[in-house]
Amino acid sequence: MTAKIITITREFGSGGRTIGKQVAAQLGYDFYDWNLVEKIAAESGFAKEFVAKNGEEQDRFMSMLASSSFSFNLNEQLFEAQTRVILELAKKGNCVLVGRCADFLLRNEPNVLSCFIFANEEARKRRILEEYGETNESIDKRLRDKDRRRKAHYQYFTGRKWGKSFFYDLCIDTSRLPLEKCAQMIVEAAKVYEPGPRFTNED
Amino acid sequence: MTAKIITITREFGSGGRTIGKQVAAQLGYDFYDWNLVEKIAAESGFAKEFVAKNGEEQDRFMSMLASSSFSFNLNEQLFEAQTRVILELAKKGNCVLVGRCADFLLRNEPNVLSCFIFANEEARKRRILEEYGETNESIDKRLRDKDRRRKAHYQYFTGRKWGKSFFYDLCIDTSRLPLEKCAQMIVEAAKVYEPGPRFTNED
Questions:
Q1: Would you say B78 and B46 are in contact if contact means Cβ atoms under 8 Å apart?
Q2: Mean of the pLDDT values across residues B97-102?
Q3: Which of B122, B181, B194 sits opposite A188 (nearest CB)?
Q4: For residue A68, is it within any domain?
Q5: Total domain count for chain A?
Q6: Which of A11, A85, A129, A165 makes a 20 to 30 Å CA pair with B34?
Q7: ipTM over the 0.95 cut-off
């Protein structure tokens, strides 16, 4: 039995997207990452830029706003649209989904291999500079801001602690392992996956 | 490069010990689990039964006792003896260490592949009954008590949250994966391991 869906929840700069892409290629599955933005934009009517900016990240300030706030409501609507798109894709199966709380949204689906990919700061800074290059902002600030916004978004919409192993089938620290090997481990796990209920205690 | 030491931190009934044994056999490493009890007993002068009972588990009540308590001091002494034995084994390398906070004790060693093995309650109850058989106590109570005591011990001596992925290279949920595949993933990761610093933020 092979897992029909792979979700990749990842830290910025951990290589999770690269791993997801390799997993999809090896399993012959569809890969959803940036292209999910287009689907969500079409589904929701939001601009692609808005989806890209707010679909996974949230300012701490935003989380503190009351629900009467206009932009807060927009984010809630965006999350609902994202949810619809992800559940729709999950119905079809044979896909790898990166980010966007897919692990949480599909937590009750029995046939999902759920992965969390992370790395230490040194490894992530190195990869961010290699992949996205230098900008005016310091690498420390880029990492800190992205981590803070992504974590705030995840925790706000899922109510889950970021990086708690119990929510995943596999958690992999890529700091000391080649990305190809991480992808291979996920593919092998997916191939012998026995569908069943997930961890039920959300404490 | 192959990781010289594998630590397996595991939930009761998750199959972590079985996985550790298979990993040790496949890598040709020494396997330390129950036999660690004997070493620690010899090192500390404590009876084997005391080491077996208190080396990994702690009553919540115990954690609340002031340091003036006699049994509290004994547990502290036992932990120190365990620490010495584990650091000594780590110096030699080529070993798999199951439990006893080895992940925490060896957190600054660059050449350690650190694994956390867990499973959902249904899977663990099934495995406990298969492996250890029925007793007078209900399976729910056995699981709950063991979880509580092991977690209390771990958190008391390490100051770490139980099951936080950032402390490990690999976390594996065995509920939906065959143990042989889990062991194989660890062996493969160990073989391509690039020694380096671990996660530094203990928050």
A1: yes
A2: 94
A3: B181
A4: yes
A5: 1
A6: A165
A7: no
